[in-house]
Amino acid sequence: MGIVGGQQTDVAIELLPLQGALAHLMVRTTLPGADVLVDEKLVAARPCPRRLALPPGRHEVTLRRPGYRAIPGDITLADGSSGEITIEVAENPAEAALVGGHIELDINQADANVAIDGVPRFRGDLTLPAARTG
């Protein structure tokens, strides 16, 4: 539906009763800027709200961000329950080369530990998945 400025329209919304009480889910990940999908529907962009309100039952939770492979996780939530799921993702080197960036590090400490997006990295040239802006 599109409404142009200055126009008014009536919209009929049919509310359906929910079977059971809503459950709440906390999604944890080390990947910043990923979209959160529940049952293949986009529900939030990272940073995700503290808790997602979902109907009770089984749900598939997936994180999506260019340059990474989606690895879904499953969780079953009871009426009115609270749950937590940790979703990790894996880089997709082929896609990272297309959408990613390049960083060159000049580290003068021989024993330095470098981590990007929570992933340990090594000294030298790196090709990284694109970062989400905004």
Verbal overview:
The chain is mostly beta strands. It is built from one helix and 13 strands; from the N terminus they run E-E-E-E-E-E-E-E-E-H-E-E-E-E. The mean pLDDT is 80. A four-stranded antiparallel sheet has the order 3-2-5-7, with no helix packed on it. A three-stranded mixed sheet has the order 4-1-8, with no helix packed on it. Strands 6-9 form a two-stranded antiparallel sheet. It has one helix at residues 93-99, and strands at 23-28, 35-38, 41-45, 52-54, 57-64, 68-69, 73-77, 82-86, 90-91, 101-104, 114-116, 119-121, 125-128. 5% of the residues lie in helices and 40% in strands.
Briefly note the structural class of the backbone: mainly beta
Instruction: Give helix % range.
Output: under 10%
Could you report the average pLDDT, rounded to the nearest whole number?
Answer: 80
- Physical arrangement of strands within the biggest beta sheet: 3-2-5-7
Question: How would a textbook summarize the main sheet?
Answer: 4 strands, antiparallel
Strand-residue proportion: 35-45%
End-to-end span in angstroms? 27 Å
Q: Counting H and I runs of at least 4 residues, what is the number of helices?
A: 1
Rg, alpha carbons? 20 Å
- In N-to-C order, the SSE pattern is EEEEEEEEEHEEEE
State the low-pLDDT regions, or none: none
Q: What's the count of strands?
A: 13
* Dominant shape: extended
